[in-house]
């Protein structure tokens, strides 16, 4: 079993209709990325308790009023790719009350992932960890961008051809692709030099597939979005530490402890994917705009 669905049946796979107009079942997709779990008792960089941040993120997603239907985990699950790290990460992720789907980042080791997530049947037994999830109103495509031993990523010809074949199989359903390395530059130079090679070719492929509405990435630990080859491409924030926002080309690699957050993507009844940012923590609200008589509160 992958996670714990814990959700009422929404009638996925069927379209409702109103006045003869097809209405697509709504859906909410959460993105977690760059959790960088270390072995029990170890802090990232001697300071960041990434396990505590992930535990808070899991509680946050479980507690959302309209709980997400699925969560995609877009890489760098662990910091060193060690089995004990994955066991800790899995114990936390299994607390999610919805299915979750994982892909590797440059800090991950696919062999260790396969071993610890051995019952996640969607993961290929060999080769790149690329797959498509067909069970929801949104088609989810996980794209493995990793290169063994390298901080940067790539979409090689083999992966591009695999993706092309997958996209040709269903041109009608709204599609979301999630990957670790962004295929575009962000202006943060020390991250841009290790982004996803082959981005131009990937973008050209996606230009001919209008069903792909959104590309979700990780790696940069920040909320970043861009119009890219006719698509919306976005990087999700880490629920732990953020790569510092430094647009100076000579800026040194560094991180900040900013308010943790995750991405939520809403499939509307019109079939559009709308991306939101959801901050993790306790904040005052919801507070009313109007009093009991309907007047605007001054």
What are the defining features of this structure?
single chain, 298 residues, alpha/beta, Purple Acid Phosphatase, chain A, domain 2, six-stranded mixed β-sheet, five-stranded mixed β-sheet, 17 strands, 19% helix, disordered N terminus
Please describe the biggest sheet, giving its number of strands, its sense, and whether it closes into a barrel: 6 strands, mixed
State the CATH superfamily name: Metallo-dependent phosphatases
CATH fold description: Purple Acid Phosphatase, chain A, domain 2
The stretches of 5 or more residues where confidence is low (pLDDT under 50) are: 1-9, 11-21
Residues in helix, %: 10-25%
Rg, Cα atoms, Å: 19 Å
Mean of all residue-level pLDDT scores: 92
Strand order of the largest sheet: 6-7-9-11-13-12
Strand content: 15-25%
Shape: globular
Order of helices and strands, N to C? Answer: EEEHEHEHEEEHEHEHEEEEEEE
Any guess at the CATH architecture? Answer: 4-Layer Sandwich
Query: Structural class, judged by helices and strands?
Result: alpha/beta
Domain unit count: 1
């Amino acid at each position: 079993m992958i996670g714990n669905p814990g959700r009422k049946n929404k009638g996925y796979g069927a379209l409702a209709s109103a006045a003869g107009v097809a209405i697509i079942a709504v859906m909410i997709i959460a993105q977690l990325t760059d959790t960088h779990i270390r072995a029990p008792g170890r802090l990232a960089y001697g300071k960041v308790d990434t396990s505590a941040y992930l535990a808070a993120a899991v509680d946050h997603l479980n507690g959302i009023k309209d709980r997400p239907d699925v969560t995609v985990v877009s890489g760098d699950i662990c910091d060193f790719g060690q089995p004990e790290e994955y066991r800790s990460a899995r114990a936390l992720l299994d607390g999610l009350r919805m299915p979750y789907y994982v892909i590797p980042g440059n800090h991950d080791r696919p062999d260790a992932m396969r071993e610890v997530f051995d019952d996640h049947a969607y993961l290929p037994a060999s080769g790149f960890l690329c797959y498509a999830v067909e069970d929801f109103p949104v088609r989810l495509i996980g794209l493995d961008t990793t290169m063994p031993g390298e901080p940067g990523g790539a979409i090689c010809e083999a992966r591009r051809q695999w993706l092309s074949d997958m996209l040709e199989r269903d041109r009608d359903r709204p599609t979301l692709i999630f990957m670790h390395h962004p295929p575009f530059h962000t202006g943060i130079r020390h991250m841009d030099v290790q982004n996803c090679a082959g981005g131009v070719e990937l973008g050209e492929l996606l230009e001919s597939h209008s069903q792909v509405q959104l590309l979700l990435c990780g790696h940069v630990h920040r909320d970043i979005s861009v119009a890219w080859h006719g698509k919306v491409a976005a990087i999700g924030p880490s629920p732990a530490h953020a790569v510092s926002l430094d647009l100076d080309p000579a800026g040194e690699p560094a991180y900040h402890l900013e308010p943790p957050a995750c991405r939520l993507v809403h499939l509307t009844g019109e079939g559009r994917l709308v991306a939101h940012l959801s901050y993790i923590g306790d904040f005052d609200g919801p507070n009313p705009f109007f009093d009991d008589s309907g007047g605007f509160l001054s």
